[in-house]
């Protein structure tokens, strides 16, 4: 098996990390707009303790982003020149329904995305829309408590149907939720959840997860009626968990970690809750509210492909006490002593992508789609505005090499590969643009100061050759 002739090379961004213009043309506040650029942004929001709502004189990076709201034509033209075939972007829910529970959508918000899709069509770039990418109207957080309230399912479905009806002839690939499993790790960002000190936080998270899973299935049901050719993907923050040693206890701990991470994709692919979750709920005194009809909806409306992000593998042990820790996508993990240090904030593990692809394909037997992979690290321009980012080229080349091996040597079916932040953007974890991912450098600092001009990095020309050769030219 080789990479398909119509393999979808491309890149991905989100609305809240790029658009800026956070209250322009009728847009409402989102949960993401509340995140300051400090170390509290990834922490749980505890209503009876100091939290992000009490922050003053802070910079809120989503308010300016990289001004994609005004620069989208220039940015898409640069991406088209690089040769990308697919562009994944998200739509800002409060740009369409400013309060979330509005009776009518905001036409000015829809007009912006109309224009983005016109530009993509002009360059024959396949759009992929993420309906909710860490984004919920703040009104739904304040009034209903975010995704833990079942009413939010109804408001979300109204929003999703509005988009799918409007773009039924322009968009084929849909992702209802970005990295749904992140509601367990960053619940305010992933689900608009804020907690009081004495409540069962785990129960609230799983209640929100159930509502998102239900909304996902209902969106697929509605979407297939609007256009039977729509293709829906689950979206998982993926990465195989390794045992710290080959001790059986460590192997079991890694197995448990993977099971709970894959719970979200299990439900979206198989249409039912896995058996182990009942025992887990009982053990942790979790009692979520469900209706019998929910499980019929989940069963009958499953995904067409498995999309996922991959940045790094994880590692765990039966006892993590005393073991060195490191960060990975959205949470902390045991540091893997067999992975070399790098200039990435996360452990770099290219073979882990191949392992993860095999894990997911063997488990689900559905086409895979890598919709995020990339290296977030500082870049520096020289006196001629050149950015020599050989480290990014090396990271991506090693990952693409392993991706191709998974296809050609292991028989994994893969639809496409999208790098994360194909143009520099504001990072989720730190809120900093200086943690750069892009092939295109944006002249802006962490406080939004700069010309906002775009410059092609060395990696831009490298990825151009990768796409042109369909992955044959990597090094």
Largest beta sheet: what is the strand line-up? 1-3-4-5-7-9-13-14
* Approximate helicity band: 25-40%
What is the chain-wise order of helices and strands? EHEHEHHEHHEHEHEEHHHEEEEHEHEEEH
- As a percent range, the share of strand residues is 15-25%
Query: Structural class of the helices, strands and pairings?
Result: alpha/beta
Query: On the 0-100 scale, what is the average pLDDT?
Result: 96
The number of domains: 1
Question: What are the salient characteristics of this protein?
Answer:
eight-stranded parallel beta barrel; alpha/beta
Structure commentary:
- The chain has a single domain (8-468), classed as TIM Barrel, CATH 3.20.20.
- The protein is 38% helix and 15% strand.
- It is built from 14 helices and 16 strands.
- Helix 2 (68-82) packs parallel to helix 4 (107-122), helix 8 (201-226) packs across helix 11 and helix 12 runs parallel beside helix 13.
- The longest helix is centred in the middle third of the chain and has 26 residues, at 201-226.
- The protein is globular.
- Belongs to the glycosyl hydrolase 1 family.
Please sum up the structure shown:
The protein has helices at 15-18, 68-82, 93-96, 107-122, 138-144, 151-166, 187-191, 201-226, 248-270, 275-283, 292-300, 350-364, 390-408, 458-468, and strands spanning 8-12, 45-46, 86-90, 126-132, 173-177, 194-195, 231-238, 241-243, 305-310, 314-316, 325-328, 331-334, 368-372, 414-420, 440-442, 454-456. It has 475 residues and is of the alpha/beta class. InterPro entries: GH, GH_1_N_CS, Glyco_hydro_1, Glyco_hydro_1_AS.
